[in-house]
Amino acid sequence: MKYEAVIGLEIHAELKTKTKMFCSCLNNPEEKIPNKNICPVCLGHPGTLPVINKEAVRKVLLVGLALHSEIPRYSKFDRKNYFYPDLPKGYQISQYDQPLCKGGELSLYLSQDKEEAQKKIKITRVHLEEDTGKLIHSPDKKYTLIDFNRAGVPLMELVTEPVITSGREARLFAQGLQLLLRTLRVSEADMEKGQMRCEVNISLRPIGEEKLGTKVEIKNLNSFRAVERAIEFEIQRQSEILERGEKVIQETRGWDSQKGITYSQRKKEEAQDYRYFPEPDLPPLHIWDEEKEGGLFDLEKLREELPELPWEQKEKMITDYNLSPVQANTLLLDNNLLNFWKKVIEILQEKKVFNNKISNLVSNYLISDVKGFVETEKIEWEKVKLSPVSFVQLMILLEKGKISSRVAKDILQEMIVKGGEAESIVRERGLEKVTAPEQLLPLIQEVIKENPKAVEDYKKGKENAIKFLVGQGMAKTKGSADPKVLEKLIQKILQESNSS
Questions:
Q1: From CA 411, how far away is CA 135, in angstroms rounded?
Q2: What is the reported pLDDT for 475?
Q3: Overall domain count for the chain
């Protein structure tokens, strides 16, 4: 029997605010001293009262507007009751039946496949809650320490409808959401630092069946690769159970990245297990009203705050700047590279030299050479000394045929490390492309004299020998010779000597 996966995601993201969700303690994810940013409120001391962080609410609403969610007029907070060592109150202030954002959708816009990129994943809700503390287990697992710096940090949770069908789609959705959160500047959403965590709800059912299978939750996936791999493993695991005629158990499972398997953690709780009820210490929120004076926010003004969204940027890159979907994705997923590219395009347009050819040169050299060199040499972007102005100079010289691609690549690496202006470097070192035969002929004679074996191989019909001789000529000119002119002249000289 063939089965299909039905997958829903729950994604948590810590919001970038100055203070925590319900108190004035600093929200500082980089704090290294344990239990420094804490107070009686976020430690859940008796008699303390929470106060809602308006900026956190605003940031969640921005996300909802970007996702075309419905923003209800009223919202409220609820108590979600459960005991855990890093939850000092014994309950979490969250939202249950009246979240800040209802519905919405996000396409898989980062896919390189045009049809897949248009698939829209429906969203159930986006709500706001407080984060828990952090447990630190000793290497020998004999004791556990608790750091409450994270307790009470504003935490956005987004829940999708169960409409995702594969690990790949789940990864694309999570990557697309992370990029949106960063574009809106509501969260750094760094999965390695725990600022964005993903949980998967997955069940299998026979193809054609409408009834959902037994749901299994995979908790705390902290990378996109983990999301995709855990789902693919779970699809295989559940398929084998069903093929044996056994039943899948509803449970919460963890992911072991080393072994590449999921493992059982505990029985899955239902909503009633948390005994939700309205938070008695917080009043309902009046979000907006048709009257301008009514509510906390003017939704139209909030909409005006939305920047150009990543899927809009991608479409513009493809249609206006002649980039491929792969090139656009690479730039979108690297904020430093994207900002550099934008400055370069702006300079090209100011100089009135922008065209499709130079646009392709810019994107190719930025992605292949700049990004490749920086990552290979492990250079921090802040230490890159290449300026957009100098990069533009280099691309114009290349586009006009004044330097060879070999020279461009060499100069580019030097400018990344040491800085400098492309025009000055080319002029001072005499690196402009040499095309005049009278300049190249003496050099070609040297190459032929120094490489008799390659000459003999060419005369025997080995065409690759000519490439070797051209390479030797390029090396002698430090890449400044025009390789096409060089090849033609070498062939001509060798053919003449052969006929004589």
A1: 49
A2: 73
A3: 3
